[in-house]
Amino acid sequence: MSNVRHRNDLRTPFRVAGAFLLVAVYGWCAAQAADSITLRTENLYGVDVHIQYPVAVGPDAAALNLIIQRWIGGSCNESPVIRNTYMERMTYHGPKDCLTALSRACAALQAGAGRTALAMGRCQAEITAKAELNTAGMLVISLYNFGLAARGFLGTSNESEHTEYLNLDIATGRILGLGDLLKPSYSAALQRMIVRSLRAQSHVAGGETLTPAGFLTKAPPIPAAMEILREGLKFSYRAGEITGRSVAPPNVVVSYKELASLIPADSPLQRLLDTPPDLH
Q: Which residue, among 4, 2, 3, has the nearest Cα to 184 in the 3D structure?
């Protein structure tokens, strides 16, 4: 499906970063526990800007931290604070790089707004990344990206927020996508599971389309945002992707019981299923 190919294209820069770091990560992992890693949280503050993210602890954790931090930097230009400016075309290599750019943009916006009494130059940015799963040799991090910029006369608001997920295999440093977790033929079956869940959430009968329930398409695609949970795979749509922007975007959790026929024996998900939850 074209949407699946597009999602893989978006993931390519992070795959490339992971590939260059494989050798370093392999050396580091030999000295680490196989089922989890130790983390601490680092906070950065600028002009109305707050960035928070987890950092792997240990003498050999630099390679994994670089992957995490480059992923955070890659989301920086999605903030409305720098969108539609020259900074949107720049590459941000990590949280500190991103903090500098967002703080500079906010400071410039507020300085410009102060020249007139009627202009409102509110500016705020927040990037919060936190570990959601840290077991069975996998680390899952969620990233919440919020930005608010009020521009021009009486402050025309430009605001957005979204959450994305980084699913990492600790042993290799590889960013895990659906192709790493499920059998190659997963696409059609998984989409049917997602549509079935959306029907249930919206109380749409099996013989009816989703469009009368407020959906923009009869066959919603597999979302780009995927999170590995203890109980299944969570898929999140962005605002306006399959429903109107005034409607909260839906989330779908597909259980591992539903996915059983799509999970190969060597999948990292099988490792998770074989790890008793009461050990963590």
A: 4
Report yes or no: 132 and 141 within 8 Å, Cβ to Cβ: yes
Contact indicator for 106, 81 with CB cutoff of 8 Å: yes
| Nearest one of 70, 69, 63 to 26, comparing CA atoms | 63
Structure tokens at 191: 């989409």
Domain boundary among 148, 176, 204: 176
Q: Give 214-273 pLDDT, tens digit per residue.
A: 565 667 788 889 999 999 999 988 876 666 666 677 788 999 999 999 999 999 999 999
Give every strand in the sheet of 251-255, ordered side by side.
Answer: 225-228, 232-236, 251-255
162-166: which pairs have CB atoms within 8 A and are 24 or more residues apart? 162/78, 162/238, 162/239, 163/225, 163/236, 164/75, 164/224, 164/225, 165/132, 165/140, 165/141, 165/225, 165/226, 165/227, 165/228, 165/236, 166/68, 166/71, 166/129, 166/139, 166/140, 166/141
What confidence tens digit (pLDDT) does each residue in 68-110 have?
999 999 999 989 898 888 999 999 999 999 999 999 999 888 7
CATH value at residue 201: 3.90.640.20
User: Measured between alpha carbons, how far is residue 208 from residues 19, 188, 213, 250, 270 in Å?
Assistant: 45, 19, 10, 19, 35
Q: Which domain holds residue 92?
A: 2-176
Number of domains in the chain: 2
Please provide the average confidence, as pLDDT, over all residues in the chain. 80
